[in-house]
Amino acid sequence: MRDYYPPVEPHDSGWLDVGDGNEIYWEVCGNPAGKPAVFLHGGPGGGLLPDNRRYFDPSAYRIVLFDQRNCGRSRPGADDPGVLLEHNTTPHLVADIERLREHLSIERWLVFGGSWGTTLGLAYAQAHPGRVTEMVLRGVWLIRPADEAWAFTPGGAAHLFPAEWAAFRDAIPPAEQGDLVRAYGRRVHDPDPAVHVPASRAWMGWELSANTLLPVPPPDLDDSLLVAFARITHHYIANGGFLPEEGLLAGVDRIRHIPAVVVNGRYDIKTPPDQAWDLHRAWPEAEFTIVEDAGHGGSEPGTRHVLIEATDRFRG
């Protein structure tokens, strides 16, 4: 079973002005002369973790990572209620990726994404297919209406996590529980910390409750990280991921030629495998793997094994 590569530190980093008053934090680690690869983190709004660097052989890859707009170390942070998110959309993030590629003088690169990172990776590749050498996608999230209904209405994931769903639902008064996404939106974007902090904690409690097949302790996130994460995630969910009306499957013909590996946990509650299956049916040329002993997390042993095996094969 493949384990992570050893920890590695960046040898270059900085902030890139991407317009609209935003600067994204970026870092590069591994081999400066190696094969370029870009890692797209989840969320939206999740930010980078040190282990994100460890899916790649650092002797073979020039590994590029960045915090997407308004999260992690990017500036300004969405934890500030005065920060508006009108310039934080999928087209903006796609443009940021391309601007970062140009800034680092990279001609083409491998795109690696997990969860929301698969959504963003597909959107980027469909917009710039000539810049992508390969794709590695884990936990496919297509953000269709049925996918959102599974996550945020009583008929979906709530059946498998009833206590966690009850905590999420009951943080909202009964009169507003008919549309929990709208009700949470009023609260996580409220300027009053007495309103937006507990609402963000409840929202993220549900978001993080079903990430792995076997329970793991929840991450210890401070209020500023929770608020930024909740605000950005809600912003995208409430707006259908800012995707074209026809969705991402309609654009598969533009990327069909790109070698790709698509991976999903069998017991992924956050992005159930029917989404990866639908992508596979639209894109049968991509290698498709269901990991039988995994949920949503990219760190689960079976999923991690397949992902690192894929980057090892693509390193050339």
UniProtKB/TrEMBL annotation:
In Swiss-Prot or TrEMBL terms, this protein is called: Proline iminopeptidase
Q: Which GO terms describe its molecular function?
A: aminopeptidase activity
Q: Where in the cell is it found?
A: Cytoplasm
Q: Ranges for the AB hydrolase-1 domain?
A: 38-297
User: What protein family is recorded?
Assistant: Belongs to the peptidase S33 family.
The first-level EC class reads hydrolase
Q: Which NCBIfam families match?
A: pro_imino_pep_1
Gene3D superfamilies xref list? alpha/beta hydrolase
List the catalytic activities from the record: Release of N-terminal proline from a peptide
Please tell me where this protein is predominantly located: cytoplasm
Q: Does the keyword Transport apply?
A: no
Query: What keywords is this UniProt entry annotated with?
Result: Aminopeptidase, Cytoplasm, Hydrolase, Protease
Q: Which gene encodes it?
A: pip
Q: What is its EC number?
A: 3.4.11.5
